[in-house]
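Exercise 3.2. Students should predict the tertiary structure of the chain below and write it as structure tokens, then compare their answer with the key that follows.

Predict this chain's 3D structure.
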Amino acid sequence: MQTSRVPAAVDALLEILRAAPGLAEVLILDGPTSVNFTSRHRLYVGWQPGDAMAVTLTQDFNAAGARTRDENFSIGCYAESRAGDKDMAIVRNRVFDTVGEVEIALRATNVLPEAPTLLGTVLWAHLATGDLTQATESGSLAGLAFTVTCRARI
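Answer key:
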């Protein structure tokens, strides 16, 4: 018996994002990775700077009889764009473009009608919250920590 949809949902999210045409020039990473500044545009799934939690979740019975449970969880993600100059507007716009492509990838289309359900692993998923950070060390950097919030029945 499956006790959580989290592993399948994270795998499906990665699959959807890696197949998204609008993210072709973005390095999509599964969780934390070693520092690699050769790629200027990165998207981490299951990791945010300064946060040890990859996913937060809660479960509860969905009805009397305790036969099924509802699971609500948020997958921590982080998009980052860097440039060699100090023009913050360029990297800020680029990081919001990247997260916009994530949102588009999570919408149903004729090609991928099950995207909002993360390929059938959850009842629904959507981009929920975000926090922008900016820095000008060794050029410019814009980072957007965000969550993909999901609901599943197990």
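Discussion points: The longest helix spans residues 88-105. The chain is about 20% helix and 35% strand.
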